[in-house]
C-alpha cells in the first residue's frame, strides 16, 4: 500500500502510485477551490506558472491572516498525503472489480476533490468500516490497516480544515500524526512537520498563540537542521545495491554497469525531490510564522521571516507563480504597517512585475495597494495614475472587488486634494 507516511521517511520508494507535492500551494482564482489532484514537483511548478492566486490587501485584521484562503492553502499542501493502494498487482482482484477498500476510498477522494464534502465524509467513514472488516477477516495485515486508517484520517482532517471546522480538524490531524509515528516516522520527518504546520495554523486561528508559536518554531528549527545536514552530506555515497552487486562474483559486468547507472540516477532523483520537499516545508513554516507574527503586531520579527520565505519560494518555485506574489504582498503589508514606504513600494513593484509576466487577474489589486502607498505618502499624482490603472484592469477582468478598491482610492485622492485647496 502506498500509505500516507511511508514515502516520506528515509529513502523514498517509487511506484506508479507515488505522487508528492513539493512547494507552496495556491487557490484557483475563480472559486477559491483547491486543485483537483496531488501532483508531482514538475506538475505543481507548471500549474503555479499557469495559475492565478488570490492576493491579500494590506492592513488586514488579525483573524483574517488565517482566513478561508489560508485554510484551503494549508489543507491542500499534500506533502504527507499518499494515494491509497491495496492489493494492487493482484490480477484476480482486479478482474473482480478491484480491492473494496481501494474502491470505496477512491469514491471518497473523488467526492472530496469535487467539493461534495457530505458525500466524501460518508464514503471516508465507509472506507474505515471496510478496513475494520478486512482486518477482522484477515484480508489485510495490521500494517496495511494502520496505513489505510492514517491516510483516511488525513483526508478527513484536510476536509474539516477547508470547511472551517477547526476543532474537528485538530483532532483528526492528531490522529494522523499518531498513525505516522506508529508506522515508524521520526518526529522531525517531513510528514510530521507538515502536520505540525497545519496544527500550528489551527492553534493560531483558535487564538492559542503560545501553542502556535511553539509549533512553528519547532518546524523551522527542524527544517533548518535538515537543510544544514544535507549541505554537509553532499559527498557521494555508493548505494548498497551497487556494492552488493560488485561483491558478487556471478555479476554480469555489462548488466552491472546498466543497473548501477539506473540505480544511481534514481537515487539522485529521490534525494533531489526530498530536498525540495524539505525546502518547501521550510518556506511554508516561515510564511505561516510570519503571518502569525503580523497578526500579533510583532512586525519587526515578521519581516525577516517573510523575507526568508520569499527567498525559499524563489529558489523552489521561481518568481512567476501565484505564491511568490502572495508572499510579496504580505511582505509589503508588513512594511506598510511599519511605515516603511520606500521598501513597500519596491516590494509591490516587484509583485506587479511578476503578476504582469503571469498576466494575473490580481494585477488590479496590487496596483490598488501601490496606489494606497502613494496616497499615504502624499504622492497624489502617482496615486491617481496607479489607481486609474487598477480601475481599468479591474474593469477588463471583471474584478468587482478590485474595482471597488480603486474607486475608493480615487475618491480618497479627491478628498485629500479638496482638503489641501
Automatic annotation (TrEMBL):
The family this protein is said to belong to: Belongs to the TTC19 family.
Presence of the UniProt keyword Ribosomal protein in the record: no
Keywords tagged on the record: Mitochondrion, Repeat, TPR repeat, Transit peptide
Organism of provenance: Littorina saxatilis
UniProt GO cellular component terms: mitochondrial inner membrane
Keyword check for Repeat: yes
Subcellular location: Mitochondrion
Predominant cellular place of this UniProt entry's protein: mitochondrion
GO terms under biological process: mitochondrial respiratory chain complex III assembly
InterPro entries hit by this protein: TPR-like_helical_dom_sf, TPR_rpt, TTC19
A Pfam short name: TPR_12
Transmembrane domains' residue ranges: none
Name assigned to this protein: MalT-like TPR region domain-containing protein
